[in-house]
Structure formats: C-alpha cells, structure tokens
Design goal:
The structure holds 3 protein chains of 3 kinds. Chain A contains 12 helices and 17 strands. By secondary structure, chain A is an alpha/beta fold. In chain A, the strands form 4 sheets. A 7-stranded mixed β-sheet of chain A has the order 7-6-8-11-12-16-17, with helices on both faces. In chain A, a hairpin with a 6-residue loop joins strand 14 and strand 15. In chain A, helix 2 packs parallel to helix 3, helix 4 (188-203) packs across helix 5 (217-232) and helix 10 crosses helix 11. In chain B, the strands form 2 sheets. A two-stranded antiparallel sheet of chain B has the order 1-4. Chain B has a two-stranded antiparallel ribbon with strand order 2-3. In chain B, strand 2 and strand 3 (176-177) form a beta hairpin. Chain B starts with a helix and ends with a helix. Chain B is globular and about 65 Å long. In chain B, 71% of the residues lie in helices and 2% in strands. The longest helix of chain B has 25 residues, at 228-252. Chain B has one domain. By secondary structure, chain C is mainly alpha-helical. Chain C contains 15 helices and 4 strands. Chain C has helices at residues 2-32, 39-57, 79-84, 86-93, 95-117, 127-149, 168-171, 182-204, 206-216, 218-223, 228-250, 260-275, 280-297, 300-303, 309-324; strands at residues 60-64, 74-78, 165-166, 180-181. In chain C, the strands form 2 sheets. A two-stranded antiparallel sheet of chain C has the order 1-2. In chain C, strands 3-4 form a two-stranded antiparallel ribbon. In chain C, 53% of the residues are buried. The chains are: A alpha/beta, B mainly alpha, C mainly alpha. Chains A and B meet through helix 1, strand 2, helix 2 and helix 3 of A and helix 4, helix 10, helix 15 and helix 16 of B.
Amino acid sequence: MKKNENTPHLNRRGFLKVASATGVAASAPMIFMKDAYAAKDFRNDPKDSKTVTLGFNVPQSGPYADEGADELRAYKLAVKHLNGEGDGGMMKTMKPSMLKGNGILGKKVVFSTGDTQTKSDAARASAKRMIEKDGALMITGGSSSGVAIAVQGLCQEMGTIFMAGLTHSNDTTGKDKRRYGFRHFFNTEMSGAALGPVLEKEYGKDRTAYHLTADYTWGWSQEGSIKKYTEAMGWKTKAAVKTPVGAGDFSQFITPVLNSGADVLVLNHYGKDMVNSLTQAVQFGLRDKQVNGKDFQIVVPLFSRLMAQGAGENIKGILGSTNWNWALKDEGSAAFVKSFGAEYGNPPSMAAHTCYVQTLLYANACEMAGTFYPPEVIKALEGFEFDGMGNGKTEYRAEDHQCFKDVLVVRGNQNPTSQFDLLEVVQEVPRAQVEYKPELLGGELGPYEV
Amino acid sequence: MMKNLIKSNTVIMLIFAAVVLTAPMWTAPIGANYPDLLQKFAIFGIFAVGYNILFGLTGYLSFGHAAFLGIGSYTAVWSFKLLTMNVVPAIILAVIVSGIFALIIGYLSLRRSGIYFSILTLAFAQMAYSLAYSVLTPITNGETGLQLEQQDPRIIDSMFGVVVTDGLPSTNLFGTLMSGYSGFYVAAAFLIFAFYISLKIFRSPFGMKLLAIKSNQTRMKYTGFNTKPYLLTAFIISGMYAGLAGGLLASIDPLAGAERMQWTASGEVVLMTIMGGVGTLIGPLLGAGIIKYLENIFSALNKSELTEIFSFMPEWLQTIVVNISNVFVGEGWHLTLGALFMLIVIFLPGGVMEGVTKIKDFILGIFGKGEDNRTAEIEGEAK
Amino acid sequence: MDAILIQLLNGLDKGAAYALIALGLTLAFGTLGIVNFAHGALFMLGAFCAVSFQKILTISKKVKDESITFFDAYKEQPYLEIWWGDTGTAIIDYAVPLSIIMAIPVMLLIGFIMERGLIRHFYKRSHAEQILVTFGLAIIIQEVIRHFFGANPIPTPAPDVVSGSAAVGAFFGLNENLVYPWWRLIYLVFSAAIILAVFAFLKFTTFGMVVRAGMADRETVGLLGINIQKRFTIVFAIAALVAGLAGVMYAPILPPDYHMGMDFLVLSFVVVVVGGMGSLPGAVAAGFLLGVLQSFASMTEVSSLFPGIDQIIIYLVAVVILLVRPRGLMGREGVFED
C-alpha cells in the first residue's frame, strides 16, 4: 500500500478568518471562511516527490461495471503515454501540446483506483480515500451524472481538480457547476441541438412524440432538451411518462404508446434501462407499425456502443447522439484507436475516449501553468482551445467548464462488418450548432482558492 | 474479584474509549488510517450498535433500518441549509426526526412478528427510497443527493451576522471543523457515548425483558406481560441510533443521497451485525469495520500494488500469489465479501465474536484456566 | 377499455414471472424452513443457461475484417450455419426454447449440489445465519457469472416466428390495433403450465403428499420414519429448477445480466410473504395480484392522480395486506412468526 509522506495532516482551513470566538456564548454559530493557502501551499503538493498521483474513480461493480472497466483501460493507457511509454497515442496529435512524455512537470505519473459503485456515497468515499490516503492530486472518472455532481462538489471542498468522466446531464456544468470540475463529455442540451435537425430531415416536421423518461435528474434533463428542440421544429409531444429507474419490465409503459396516436417514441434511458426498454418496445411491434400514415420510429438520444451491444439486433436503424465513435477517421481518433486497440485488442468506447482525453488535458494544463497548484491549473484549462483529440476544434469554456466540440449523430448499423461495428455516423454536427450561452443553464462556479 | 473488575462498566468503557481514540494509530499497518475511513468506521459502528439493540436483544429482524439513516441525513442537511452550519442542532434534529419516523413505522410494523415484521420494515424503507429518488426530489434532490448551496438562508447564522461570500461554508462544532481527523474524533466521541448507552441497556432490567421476549414471547404474554411497549421502545432507540449515524454522516460530508435508504443499505447493517456476532456488544462494531474496510481498501487494490505487497516472496511464488489474489481485490472485492460471509457463518456460527471467544478460551486453556473462565461467562450472562 | 385489457395482460405477464420465482422460494421456505437469499441467483443462472446455450450454438468461424488493422475485428458466421445451412440457422433461432433441455438437468444438478453441500447444514440454524450464508453464496455466483460474461446485458432473442406481436384484439373481436407480443403470451402459458405441474405433483403423488405433510408438521412426519432428508433434497432441486426455468424463458424479455437476480430477490420475498408463509397458492395469487396492480398503477390516469404511485405500489400493497391480514393472503399460523 502506498503512503504519501507529504500528505498534510493539517486541515485546509487551518485557521479562521472570523475572529476567534472562544469566548462567545456556546450557542453562537460560526462559519469559517476559506482561508487562502500561503502561496502555493496546497493539498497533496508533490513537492520533491518523484511521482505525482492521479485518482481514477470508476464504477467497478453495478450496471456500469463494463463501462468502468473500459474507462480504467483508457486511464492506464494515458498514464503510459504521459510517462513516455507506448506509441504516444493522441499526445502526438494534440495541438497545442506541451506534453513531453516525461510524466507531468518531470514527475512520473502513478495512479490509484477506486470503485464508485455508481452511488454518490460510495463514489465520494472512494474519492476521499484517494485524496486523503493516496495523495491524489486530481480525481477523474465516473459513469453517471449523479456521481459526477457529487464528486465534483467534494473536490471543490477539498481543493482537488475533478475531470469528469461520462456525465451527460446539463446540471454538471449548469446548476451544479464547480470551479474545480471540468467536463469534456457533451450534455443533453447539445444532444438536443444536434439531433433536432437530423430528426427533422429524416422524419419530417409533422410528428408526434411520446417520451419515456428515466425518473431522475439526467432523464428529466434529457427529456427537456429533446422536447425543446423537437417542439421548436414543429413536433408535438403527446406525453412524457416517467419510468422508475431499473424497472426491468417496461411493458406497462410501452403498451399505452401503441394506440396513443404518437408516431415517434423517444427513450430517455441509459444503460440497462435503455437495453430493456428498447428490446421490449421492439417486441411490442412498435417498429413495424404505421401511425398517421408514417412509419413508427424510435429514438434513443444518448447512444453508447458498449451499452448498445446488450440490445443486439434491436438497435439497427435507430438514431441517437454520441460523444465520440472509434470509427472516426480524423488523425487524433485514429491514433487513439490504434494504440488502444494494440494494447487491449478492442476499440475504445466513448467513455474511454473522454477519460483518456481528460487525463491528457489535465497533464497539459499543469505543464502550461508550470505548477500543480490547482488555481493556476484551472486558469490554464479555462478557455483552453485545442485540436487533434477526436472531435475537431474544441474549447474548454471558461464560464462553465464545458467542452464545446462537434457532436456525433449516429444510427444503429444495418449491416455491421464486425462485432464492433454497431453504430454508423450519420452526421458530425459542427460545434457552432450546439453552442449555447453559459447563462442558459445557470449555476455558480465558486472560488479559485478554497 | 479480578473478573468482576474486568466486567465492570467503567473498566469496559475506559478500555473501549482508549481503543477507539487510538484508532488512527493501530489502523496504520492495515492502511486504514485516513480520516474518511476512520469516520466511516465510527459512524457505521454506531449504526450497527444501535441495530443490535433491536435485533440482538429482541430477535426482531428489521430490513428497513437504512430508512432512518437516510432520514437522519436529510434532516441534518436541511438543518445546515435552513438553520446553521453548527452540527449540534443538525444532529439533535436528525435523532428526533428519525425517532418520530421510527415511532410510526415501528408502531405499524410491530403489529406483526417474524418474517412478516421484516417485510413490513423492508416495504416502508423501499417506499422511502423510491419516493426520495423520484417524486420527492424537491426535498431530497433525487439522484444527485441533497447538497448545500451558497444562497441557503441559514437563519441562525445570519442572525449572528455571519455572511458567506465565497464558496460553501463548512460544517463545524462550535468552531471545530468536521472534516478530517477532527471529524473522526467527534464521531468517535459519539460512538463511545452510543456504546455506553448500549452497554447500559444490555445490562438493565429493560434489556433483560427484551431478551426474555426474544426467547419466548408467547410465555411472556401468557404471564400478562405486554411486550409491545418494550419492543417499540427498542425499535425507536435503534431508529434513533440510525438517525444519529445519518446525521453524523451528513455532518462530516454534507450530502445526503437516496441510495442510503435502499434495501441493500439496510441489508448491509444486518450483515454487519450477523457477521460480527448478534447480541454481543462488540460484534456489530467489528462487523461494520470489516465490511467498510473491504469496501474501501480491497476495492482499491490492483495488480501493481499486490506485486508490491508480495514482493518478499520468491518470484515464481509471487506471480502465482498475485494472480490468485488479484481475483479477490479491485473489481473482485464483492467476491471476497461473499466468500467471507459464507466462511464466517459456516465456521463461526456466532460471528467473529465467537472466533474471539474461542481464541480466548484456547489461550486461557493453555494456562489451565478454561474452567474458571467459563464460570465467569455464565456469571456474566446471568448478571 | 382496451387500455385496461392490455394492462391486465401486462400485469398477468409480470405476475407470471413473480409467481414462478415466488413458487420456488416458498417451496424452500415451507418445506425446508430455509430463507434462501440465493434464490434470485438461481433465476439468473437459468437465464444464463439460455445465454450459454446460445453461445454454444453460435460458436463461429471468424472472418477477419481486413479494413481494421489495429485490433481483431471479425464478422462471425456460426459453424452450424456453415455446416447445415438453413437448418443450422433455424436451430440457432430456437436457442432459447431449446436451452430448456439443457437448463433442466443443469438446474436440478445445481439445486442438488446446493442442498447437499450447503443448505442441508443450515436447517437447524437461525434465519439470520441462513440469510448470511445464502446471500454470500448469491454474491459469489454473481461474481463468477460476471467473470465469464461481463456486466453488460446480453441479447438473447426469441425465435423469429414469435418475435412479433399477436393480434389479441382481433381475436377477441375488439380493437384491431390491440396487439401483444407472442413471446409474452408464451411466457404466460408456460408459467401457468409449470405452476399447475408443481401443484399436480404435490397433490397427486405420494411424494407430494409427504412433502405437504412435511410442510404442515415436519416433526411428526420425521417421527413416522419417513426419510425426509432425501425428499428435502428433491424439493430443493425442484425449487431451483422452477426458478431456473423462469429465468430461461424470461431471457428474451429482459436481456440477462449478472445482477438480474438481485433485482428480483427482494420483490419475490415480498410476493411470498404477502401470499402468506408456507402457502403455495398464496404465493401464486400474490404474484399475479402484485403484477396486475403494478401495471395499473403505471397508467397515466392513475399516476397523475397519485404521483409516484407506480414506484411504490408493490410495497404499499404489501403493507396494507400485512396490516389487514396478519399472515398475508393465505398464510398459516405459526409459520415463520418467531
């Protein structure tokens, strides 16, 4: 077990700004303001250590375990590349880049891993372990928005940078955005903006949609965004029904769709829920139906290749959006797929891509800042523009820490040429089309110094 | 004489307090000496000790105690949001509110016994979980969990003129911050207090009556003894313990998630108690420690760390050992948990505590005091 | 009206699954006095019988996709198709129903081994210990399955002929648009057949008579010199088989994953207890009742009136029934009340 001798045992708010109030009556409440560290004295400062520790917090059990395993593979690959081993992957295609392949700021990168269990509590406990015990300087990973927001909040408290993994809810960089949290993955707003025009082109303006929505924050966020963009182009929304998470059998929600008069079913589900609801919707013959003289269609706004495998044949021809796909032909994607494929024998998932990129971006920001001191690293990341990482020209917007880049609209492949060839790219929606004003989603980033 | 001294409450409490407060030192060799895990040991220790008051003494197997933990957490976070960042009102309110819920749920559930009781408690807890996750989102913030916000009113704090300008305020106990090691010591103090109450209950006439209900409720009833108030009191006390644990969880880390109330969380405390030793004073604590240790440390081990641990072995042996043990750590930590459950219950029906007793007997047996010891045990039980 | 009819079908279908799982559980409860937390895992193992049978049938010749050079991407063609052409394709298509042939001996064997190796030693132990040991076993079974099959759900489609929907409405002379998936109808019929078979077995065979006597009064039956041990083993194996078959047939509806058993575990306990401990008809009735109520609670007409009702309906009904009827629908006095 690793021990970091440098872990400061002093609390970060070591002393108080509010005048010491020992004499005040016992009931007097006191709030302790966050004090600034004396210049560049910060939690888990590697100082003279030869290594720097990153914390990879991924789901290793529960429904997203396979996705978590893929994220972990990507992280290990990123660490290899950062330390100058392997073929370098996207480090060669990333521009601008200050990465030299000698670790970060000359320190070798090591890592610790943990299991989020896709539960807020467990994820926070695991992140705390990495920060308090293993001396992690940055936390990254996760496969759901609830976990991302919970860990992001913790990282703000601890003054540790959090590079979110797969999280798609608007809240992560909206209502619940944090100064110490950064998201490379896209969100439901961008999914809606990207999918809308494609849906219009494929299915026309005169459609009636029926939403089945996973009954939690991400589901609502997704439903809201899709409604917003489809209604703007003239679609009607027949109904939006909430389904319990992990319902398993969705028959009681699918049957009302049959004779509702709707001709599009939007499944705002992810993971197991998506696999089950899609499989069952197809069994109920929705895709063979004709309604209002049009072919009935099913849309899955957030598509993941890894998860789509579970639905088998049923995904064929179904439209959705995705952050990234291994079949992209640009230089960065090709380099990444090549080194990931050579290492593990299969192509990376979109979660793996995001996690790999996030690690490189953090490392590069440290190089740019010339220090590990988080406020400086944050400033280096804010507004950072880069290219060659698989989604075209990308910007980490300073106002909300959301990455803006091209979004992929994909369709379940009718004739896959291999077991990995499940999604075909319909359109690479340019960044300009999915951009929105930061004020749209609200929220408050909070302070640099904690 | 010596025996009586060891059995006396004061001595037990002194030893217990010393062991708990020195935890940061003696957990170092097993890599558990960091604030978060130590806090979890203490808090889940409270939870399990409280659960044992119900299950260990009365034999009533509640499958819904996590609901009280969750309710305690939500109450505490709301107290931080609305009243003050001081943890005292938060914890007091958490205990009171969960006590009220325990009264209602207990009153209804205790109309049945055996497995019917278990399922009733399970049903209440699952309802609480499902609602908190979905329709009660305005109160619970659903999947994300209830969090602090800068613009929260904090009435009492603002009355004293404390203004938060930058970032989120922190929870504190009259100035002592609740994060890090100070958080552990606060939780440890509560654990010692909770353990003391539990010890008192175990050795009180009330505790004896509960035990009598466990051994034969029908006979108790025939003697004209109304068992219900006793059972309900035990249920409420253990619910309040859970509320205390929930309030402490929220105090140390002000976020309350719905999954704290799921049946798996209720199941966890049942497993902790059974694994440690039902009805023993220390057992549930040990169970809580073991399960939390596995969850936090075993899930974090990976191959390179294992290689480091077994580096003292010759290389061929090291490779074999690392490859085998690798199955049980990291993503395989559930496997270890499952195997441990089975091994303990098969070989030590009384939980870990039975193992401890066996070892004690064995050691005393070597010195020829086995007989003496057993007499003392009987005496202790009869007391 | 149509909506109600179709929700009734949904509910019966759900109920069929609940009833099948609860049936095995209550058999183990009632006869052996065992609280089996590994019962959900047995259901999951059944589903994975279908998965592995399908995998065996589709062992494939892999044709490398030459356009991909970084890793091995294949287009797969099952050997069965290569050797037997259309016949092979047809056999693969029927993988799920055919896997029953494999599931029967496998599940009986698993049940046999479990009872002989573990459960038998826990008849006299407390329920708490039974829970701990079977829960531990369930976790181990899950992790083993995950080790071999991963955590993602695995598509296990029904045969092509029955993958579509039946025109139920037209059959009953109602709305033409009223359709219901064939496979779900098959599942319903299959469950009814299994339930009847188990009842008939217990009712009309001597073996069943002894088992029922054992459920009523274990001690006396033991005193009569009947070898109750051997029968217990068989009963447990049957319980495992029923759970397994429920899993096999459910695979096309719910693509199996390693965790599916846990998701059903709590629910099936609620069903058994609502039905009343030790009562087989009670378990079946409770299964169907809860399934149907769950379906109706999800109708927008209902859930807009009581928000969130679809999430908690099962537990709410359980609470109400247990408070009104002390021993569930058909439970007997004194069973599992201490």
